[in-house]
Write a structure and sequence with these properties.
The structure holds two protein chains of two kinds. By secondary structure, chain A is an alpha+beta fold. Chain A has nine helices and 20 strands. Chain A folds into two domains: 212 residues, Rossmann fold; 111 residues, Beta Barrel (OB fold (Dihydrolipoamide Acetyltransferase, E2P)). Chain B is mainly alpha-helical. Helices cover 79% and strands 0% of the residues of chain B. Chain B is globular, with a radius of gyration of 21 Å. Classes of the chains: A alpha+beta, B mainly alpha. The interface between A and B is medium-sized, with 26 and 20 residues.
């Protein structure tokens, strides 16, 4: 299958710090992909490379099976296929309509046609009444919607969104999600967006990329916790917090980031916990249960957020409900040191 | 006090009666000042934009040099350009010494650092997201530059008006390169200096009033434009 983007050995350095390090990444066309990860994980840096705004420090990027040369002349046609909507979009000091029509003007589309397309795009985000207003007077949510209309007007093949619903009220959030869902339904447009919200990622995308410290962590990268490695009783132990310790294969004593595999996290009801032989149990509660890719993902509060995954059948048999107090156990190989 | 009041009254009379000598001096002043401002802006705005947006070795040194040139005395420029344009000078064959063109050359050298330096400041203050937004919406390099200049337009306009204010009020260059020739290169400032030397204050006061009026008008225009911009935001 032909890939829309293919990254090989791509690195991005800011002075001496590596902001991004991707050995391999392939993104299929006409799909929706969510980039998940904490702040500083490299999501925005990756989006800027995907939008052809910033060249990587090294490595090869292929777009539609062609290598990207990163010289200004060859980038313009690529940029006209890909539009990035910033996390905090900025409006040109002109009217809302002029802002939406900007991309069309750059493409040489004139007069009535330009206005018609711009108005159509404003209608899609429910902002036609604001067409004549100075764009600087819009609220944050309205600015986000106009920015989406401005990007849509360019009729791109790829739309990139950097945290599209971050710091936006519920009403604007619903509108933005609905617009993104509508765009998804249109054939030929690929959507790639970064988000902190797992539910939003589940609702809007079929592919998820997890990032941490500039690297792809693979599915399940969400269970990354800070801890301290100590050597005790001839074992290496990672102390996450009081009464929450995990065996780790080996590691240098001191601060670390540890990844807990969701499938290695077990949930026991209080009755089951009393009978189990395991002595490494942590008290917690069930915060959220969501259906993802045929499995049930459970968000637990054990003093820190922790996710586990089980089949629908296992979830039904466990009899666990949201709000239940539970005990959480870990398989011997549950923890892996990441940094 | 009576002397000043009398001079002011006679000066106002000259202005109202549309005195030809007075208005010709005003016309020469405005002509050379507008011309030098246009030339300096045509060179200084792109130069300032380039310095602001490009990363290059020695950028800090160039900005320091530009800021130093802001304090360049007019008589030093006058002397330097005179040496170039006089018969023995390398550009003596142009034959433009003691013409309005010579004044324009000197004044361009005077205000080019002003326009460039203030353009650097105005463009540097523009949010980086404007550049990224224009690029991602499909703008080419020239269109991106125009988008940034458009956002920085009020800062740049301020620079141009400040530069115009500088040249219309300067005297060293106009005197040394124009020669204060009546009906040809006599500007408001050189005429005022001459009248002062002669002990004739009426024309000097009338020209002073015009000079202040021009300065006031430029500031009113700037405030009006910036005020409208402020409302838009």
């Amino acid at each position: 299958m032909s890939m829309l983007y293919a990254f090989t050995g791509v690195e991005m350095r800011h002075e001496s710090r590596k902001a991004l390090e991707i050995a391999h990444l392939a993104l299929p066309p006409e799909s929706a992909c969510a980039l998940l990860g904490p702040n500083g994980s490299g999501k925005t840096t990756l989006l800027h490379i995907l939008a052809f705004l910033t060249p990587p420090s090294s490595g090869e990027v292929r777009f539609m099976d062609e290598p990207v040369s990163w010289c200004e002349k060859s980038l313009l046609p690529l940029r006209r296929k890909v539009v990035l909507v910033n996390q905090h979009p900025i409006m040109f000091s002109a009217t809302v309509l002029d802002n939406v029509a900007y991309g069309l003007k750059m493409r040489g589309i004139r007069g009535a046609k330009r206005k018609r397309i711009a108005m159509e795009c404003l209608e899609r985000v429910g902002m036609t009444d604001h067409a004549g207003r100075p764009a600087h007077r819009l609220s944050g949510g309205e600015t986000r919607r106009v920015a989406i209309a401005r990007a849509l007007a360019c009729r791109p093949e790829v739309m990139l969104f950097d945290e599209p619903t971050a710091s936006v009220d519920v009403e604007n959030q619903a509108v933005i999600e609905s617009v993104i869902r509508d765009i998804r339904a249109e054939k030929g447009i690929t959507i790639i967006f970064s988000t902190h919200k797992r539910l939003e990622a589940a609702r809007l995308s079929e592919n998820k990329i997890f990032m941490f410290e500039g690297k792809l962590t693979g599915p399940g990268g969400e269970n990354l916790l800070s801890g301290t490695i100590v050597h005790r009783d001839k074992r290496d132990i990672c102390v996450i917090r009081d009464n929450f310790e995990l065996d780790v294969p080996s590691g240098q004593p001191g601060q670390c980031r540890v990844f807990i595999r969701p499938e290695a996290v077990q949930i026991y009801s209080l009755e089951q916990a009393a009978k189990t032989s395991s002595n490494n149990l942590v008290a917690g509660s069930v915060l959220q249960m969501t259906s993802e890719g045929g499995h049930i993902k459970i968000l637990l509060d054990v003093g820190v957020p922790l996710r586990t995954i089980m089949t629908r059948q296992e979830a039904v048999e466990s009899g666990i409900f949201v709000g239940d107090e539970v005990m959480v156990g870990f398989a011997p190989d549950a923890a892996q040191i990441r940094s | 006090m009576d002397f000043l009041t009398q001079s002011l009254a006679e000066a106002l009379g000259m202005l109202v009666s549309l005195d030809p000598e007075l208005y010709f001096i005003v016309w020469v002043s405005l002509k050379v000042s507008v011309m030098s401002t246009i030339v300096a802006s045509a060179l200084g705005v792109p130069l300032g934009f380039f310095i602001a947006v490009r990363r290059f070795r020695g950028k800090r040194a160039v900005i320091t040099l530009l800021n130093t040139l802001l304090a360049l005395p007019t008589v030093v420029i006058g002397l330097f350009v005179y040496a170039m344009l006089s018969r023995q000078g390398v550009l003596g064959h142009w034959g433009v010494l003691y013409t309005p063109t010579a004044i324009v050359i000197g004044q361009v050298i005077l205000i080019l650092p002003w326009v460039a330096s203030f353009t650097v400041s105005a463009v540097s203050r523009i949010d980086e997201r404007y550049r990224q937004t224009a690029m991602t919406l499909g703008a080419g390099p020239v269109q991106v530059a125009l988008a940034i200049i458009r956002e920085a337009r009020f800062g740049i306009l301020g620079a141009v008006i400040a530069a115009f204010g500088r040249v219309i009020a300067e005297i060293g260059i106009a005197m040394m390169l124009g020669g204060n020739i009546k009906g040809f290169t006599r500007t408001m400032t050189t005429a005022m200096a001459l009248e002062h030397n002669k002990g004739e204050f009426v024309l000097a006061v009338a020209l002073g009033i015009v000079l202040l009026a021009v300065s006031l008008a430029m500031n009113i225009v700037l405030q009006a434009v910036q005020g409208r911009y402020g409302e838009d935001r």
